Amino acid sequence: MTVTLHRHGPIAVLTIDNPPVNALKTVVRARLLALFQELAADEAVTAIVLRGEGKLFVGGADIAEFDRPPEAPTLPDLIAAIESSAKPWIAAIHGQALGGGLELALACHYRVALAGATLGLPEVNLGLIPGAGGTQRLPRLIGLEAALPVIAERAMLGSASAAAVGLLDQIVEGPLTESAVAFATALPPRRSPSPQPDPGPAFWESAAARITKASKGESAPLAALQAVRHGVANGLAEGLRHERQTFLALRATEEAAALRHLFFAERAAARPAVLRGIDPCPVATVGVVGGGTMGSGIAAAFRNAGFAVILSERDAPALERGLATVKSIFDAAARRGGTTEAMAAERMAGVTGAVGLNGLAACDLVVEAVFEDLAIKRAVFADLGRLCRADAILATNTSYTDPRQIFDGISGPDRCIGLHFFSPAQVMKLLEIIPLPDTEPTVLASAFDLARRLGKVPVQSGICEGFIGNRILKRSRAEAEAMLLAGVPHADIDAAMRGFGYAMGPFEMQDMAGLDISFMNREAARARGEALPETPGDLLVRAGRKGQKSGGGWYDYAPGDRTPRPSADAVQIIAPLVRSGGGLPPAQIVDRLIGAMAAEGRVILAEGIAAAASDIDLVQVHGYGFPRIKGGPMFQTDRKAKP
Ligand code: NAI
After folding, report:
1. N or C: which end of the chain has fewer CB within 10 A?
2. pLDDT tens-digit map of 222-266
3. How many other CB atoms are found less than 10 A from the CB of residue 481?
């Protein structure tokens, strides 16, 4: 049964029951419409309460239906019927009312909710705008100022704010059905939504500027604003028609397909089927070994998520530096307005420092982020293996080293795992999870649970050099270098990738990270007798150009300014190694680089290092700046391969 009917005297209570999120799929809409007609004709019924079974009211439309033409009755059909009903409908909300769920609630004549509910229109996250009246009815109910952030800027309203702006008629106490029935028995007068006066071009232009700035090349947020404006200028009926047309047009775009792909990819990645029913270990106190670039960010990420953190360094001065870095992360967040100074202080108070490893004995989890050096990492874990509780999870953040070597010989290998964070760790969403052959399922389940608590996107990786992400990075870098040697100017390669949607191109990225580390690695390999050919990057470092930190690398930089400027010097330095007269159109440059990523991705899949192509896309989008609206390299090449 997708919708059930119960009678409480003259009040009919309809309960949508379509687990897990009561999505408004075709059978649900059809059944609701049939019940609507039945109740309209039933003289014993004076009012209808609409609610959701389980954890929430309604999570939205059924996204899986978006790849097909809409089937009747559409959501707008159903909503038009309810809105014009002579009998009052009351939406009784708990948990969440999102997207089509909120639009359904907006069609009702009253809305009540339990405290702690969330109401929102997250359609833009899927490259869409609300398609069943959200852009029209919400502004008419709560005003433009309150509605725009919800419609076009991803704002979610909690029960209290929703009541404050008039989206809810009342916040009720549980049990919800009884309270909603009581409300329906003594209804206050209906508030009729009011047409919005046009606030004038300046209002729309400033909203457009704000929205454009925040939307990384996406088209939906601006289209949502435009839909609101069109309705304000032309009235409800025309506004609804225009909104639906825009919704259907956006639904068919590559951008929306890419965002849907990532939505499903993220959902699948967060809950691997093999871990169903396996409980994670409780984790409250986290030790982080090493307070450098990664360790300080990892400590901040855990602390931001509410864990108690102990940061360990090898000596007092290094500990002081590490703690200062963590503090600067909290302070910066307060300065930018994400948190307050009081919160920054409270967070810092929950980070304790320790010299050496003895202070970590009570931790539930220890994440190691010391130098990328096998002997040092092994020594750290030999000590931790003895010091920590037998059920404490021990994790390495290594980028390249085989974790089997790192943990070799440790007591309790079943509690060991790789947790690979990305820099800056308090910001980047990707967490590569690398189980070892001996890793206990509960420890693996804990890693996924930790990712959820940290707000990260987990992707499981098998063991290989660089795991999924850095292995693909190596391949795409090699492709960029091959193009460079063939005479494609590095500035053209960067510009093409920026044009595709990356915040920076591969050579700009190298300038930011510094060219010297990979240079030193190559020099070390040469010293071991490997015959590595001289690269353009080697020439730049030998000429003192290590990237932004030395004032120049592939580009020149003015002091205190990270804007890359074309460098005649760099071009001249690398000239002996690059052919002249090459050059490729931007689309071909992009195809070569994305193609290289996907080619390596296919090998990674074939080897079983990644479980799904969509996992590879998640790695690129959440760890390496791949533009979200393009869906990832596997998605791109997959779409191209289809006729
Ligand atoms: P880093 O050089 O900035 O920091 C390493 C820190 O470890 C230093 O502060 C050092 O004093 C400390 N340390 C060394 N031995 C120690 C010991 N026995 N006990 C306590 N602390 C000790 O290095 P970074 O960049 O933070 O890298 C750390 C690890 O994370 C490496 O394995 C690296 O491959 C990995 N990683 C690095 C990423 C990056 O973007 N930098 C990204 C992802 C992983």
Report:
1. C
2. 999 999 999 999 999 999 999 999 999 999 999 999 999 999 999
3. 19
Query: How many angstroms separate the alpha carbon of residue 82 from the centre of ligand 1?
Result: 60
Q: Is the CB of 396 under 6 A from ligand 1?
A: no
Distance between CA atoms of residues 499 and 486, nearest Å: 21
Q: Which residue in 99, 251, 111, 267 sits closest to 176, CA to CA?
A: 111
* CB-CB neighbours of 330 under 10 Å: 22
Mean pLDDT of 143-148: 96
- CA of 292 relative to ligand 1 center, distance in Å: 5
123 flagged as catalytic? yes
Cβ–ligand 1 distance for 432 under 6 Å, the answer: no
pLDDT value at residue 580: 84
The helix/strand/coil state of 492 is helix
The CA-to-CA distance between both ends of the chain, in Å, stands at 40
Amino acid at 184: A
The pTM of this model reads 0.93
Residue nearest ligand 1's atom 29 by CA: 369
Please report the atom of ligand 1 found closest to the CA of residue 398: 32
CA angle 243, 80, 28 (to 5 degrees): 100
Q: Which of 539, 547, 468, 543 is nearest to 506 (CA)?
A: 547
Task: Identify the active-site residue in 43, 103, 479, 530.
Answer: 103
Tokens 């290998």 correspond to what residue?
A: 413
Q: Delineate the domains of the chain, giving CATH numbers in brackets.
A: 3-251 (3.90.226.10), 276-460 (3.40.50.720), 469-589 (1.10.1040.50)
* Spatial distance between the Cα atoms of 362 and 590, rounded to a whole number of angstroms: 50
State the distance from the centre of ligand 1 to the C-alpha of 396, rounded, in angstroms.
10
* Residue 431 Cβ < 6 Å to ligand 1: no
Q: Is 372 in the pocket of ligand 1 (CB under 6 A)?
A: yes
Residue 431 pairs in a beta bridge with 458
Is 159 in contact with 117 (CB distance < 8 Å)? yes
pLDDT average, residue stretch 169-198: 92
Q: Is the pLDDT of residue 209 over 80?
A: yes
- Over residues 307-330, mean pLDDT: 98
Whether ligand 1 lies within 6 angstroms of the CB of 240 is answered as no
Task: Take atom 44 of ligand 1 and give the residue whose Cα is closest.
Answer: 399
Active site residue 65: no
For tokens 């059905």, what's the residue? 177
What is the C-alpha to C-alpha distance for residues 335 and 162, in angstroms, rounded to an integer?
Answer: 28
